Amino acid sequence: MKRTTSTPKTSSQPRRAPAIHTPQLPQNFERIRKRAEELYAARSGMIGMTLNDWLKAEQELKQEVEKKTNNK
After folding, report:
1. pTM
2. Where along the chain do its domains lie?
3. What DSSP letter does each residue of 12-56 carry, written as one string?
4. Burial class (CB in 10 A: 0-12, 13-18, 19+), 57
5. Which residues, in sequence order, are CB contacts of 54 under 8 Å at separation 6+?
């Protein structure tokens, strides 16, 4: 039996790099950041609770948005 090997045809167009998905920041990222910074400053800049500041800022913003939505 005769084996033939075929050479893959090459396209005249260059290959494109695969798409890279960049994570999207939350829509209100800047507002959350500013509020978290305020909470940090209110604690006299003590280290170790920055995650809590961020989460509290997110929760406050979420409550603010829900309150506005419910009042419509």
Report:
1. 0.60
2. 29-70
3. SSPPPPPP-PPPPPPTTHHHHHHHHHHHHHHTTT-TT-HHHHHHH
4. buried
5. 32, 36
The Cα-based distances of 30 to 8, 23, 35, 36 in angstroms read 51, 15, 9, 10
Among 53, 29, 28, residue whose Cα is nearest residue 40 = 53
Q: What is the Cα–Cα distance from 55 to 53, expressed in whole angstroms? A: 6
pLDDT tens, residue by residue, 6-63: 555 655 777 887 777 666 777 789 999 999 999 999 988 888 899 999 999 999 999 9
Estimate to the nearest angstrom the gap between the alpha carbon of 27 and the chain centroid. Answer: 9
